[in-house]
Amino acid sequence: xxxxxxxxxxxxxxxxxxxxxxxxxxxxxxxxxxxxxxxxxxxxxxxxxxxxxxxxxxxxxxxxxxxxxxxxxxxxxxxxxxxxxxxxxxxxxxxxxxxxxxxxxxxxxxxxxxxxxxxxxxxxxxxxxxxxxxxxxxxxxxxxxxxxxxxxxxxxxxxxxxxxxxxxxxxxxxxxxxxxxxxxxxxxxxxxxxxxxxxxxxxxxxxxxxxxxxxxxxxxxxxxxxxxxxxxxx
Length: 234
Description:
Elements: E1 3-10, E2 19-21, E3 23-27, E4 30-31, E5 37-41, E6 63-66, E7 77-80, E8 86-88, H1 92-102, E9 106-110, E10 121-125, H2 126-136, E11 149-153, E12 164-167, E13 175-183, H3 199-208, E14 212-221, E15 223-226, E16 230-233
Parallel strand pairs: 10-11
Antiparallel strand pairs: 1-2, 1-11, 1-16, 3-4, 3-15, 5-9, 6-7, 7-8, 10-14, 12-13, 12-16, 13-14
């Protein structure tokens, strides 16, 4: 046993704010409902056409929520904007607002496998964040890193890579395979509430952590993960 699940978060829309969860369902494609929707630039023919907070920083302060959290594949999604307005995700007003800010025509996609940059699930341990806080001389908001699973653990993340992790001890417990550490980009510099940038954080992560924090994982066995579950390294 290496710790317990402290936080669970899924992100209904790529680059928008996360949805705190007390439990998540893990299938072969990742966490159900995670990054299920994404805005994309219609005229972008690159391998990464997605609209992200690198284009519009305060996208991270748009709070997307499933109306029916238990049925994300069929549930409508509502978005609370930073100015307090609430709109349906597919509302023309929302798309036009984002288009005017990015200066490009946008579309909206619902994806079965999620709009992931690399791997479907991201995890981190409290030991890494304690080290980051110490290096920065202040508490760093973990939401900047957009993890799905935060584990209260003193075991370094490097020891998780290449191994399986079991969550809980029930017959429906999920199991993940940890693949590699996560290389970080400028997304972490964006404050999740104010959208202000903090370039110093990027410098600390690059120089003192090899520009890597957290780990990626894929599904080894579908099932449930709950806040409070014990976590076992296999």
